[in-house]
């Protein structure tokens, strides 16, 4: 079974194209280092729920869109190895992402899959 890193974040609509450019670069770096899949999705049908929802989870504002993404790896050990390489890759160095979205409101975590159909 694969290991998956999942992410949910809010990006200002004015920064969406810039975010997409950064995601393309990041995705290529993850894939070059061995990630199986790198997927980025922009919210299309995510209503603001009364109690819980994707927009609520990341405190999305009216001028922001929710991004849902994941990276798939062969295993947790392989993920740790790949992420070690990605984090020191000079193409992803710097704090440019801080100008594109608020990382403090990003939700992320690693998950061990238990079912793959």
The CATH class name reads: Alpha Beta
Low-confidence stretches: none
> What's the quaternary structure here?
single chain
Strand count, sense and barrel status of the largest sheet are: 4 strands, antiparallel
Based on CA atoms alone, the radius of gyration comes out at 15 Å
Kindly state the percentage of residues in helix.
Answer: 25-40%
- Domain count, please report it: 1
Report the end-to-end length measured between terminal Cα atoms.
Answer: 11 Å
Broad shape: globular
The CATH topology comes to Alpha-Beta Plaits
The strand order across the widest sheet is: 2-3-1-4
Protein name: DUF1428 domain-containing protein
Organism: Rhizobium puerariae
Layout of helices and strands:
Elements: E1 3-12, H1 16-32, E2 37-42, H2 54-57, E3 64-73, H3 76-87, H4 96-100, E4 107-112
Antiparallel strand pairs: 1-3, 1-4, 2-3
Protein name: DUF1428 domain-containing protein
InterPro entries: Dimeric_a/b-barrel, DUF1428
Pfam family, one: DUF1428
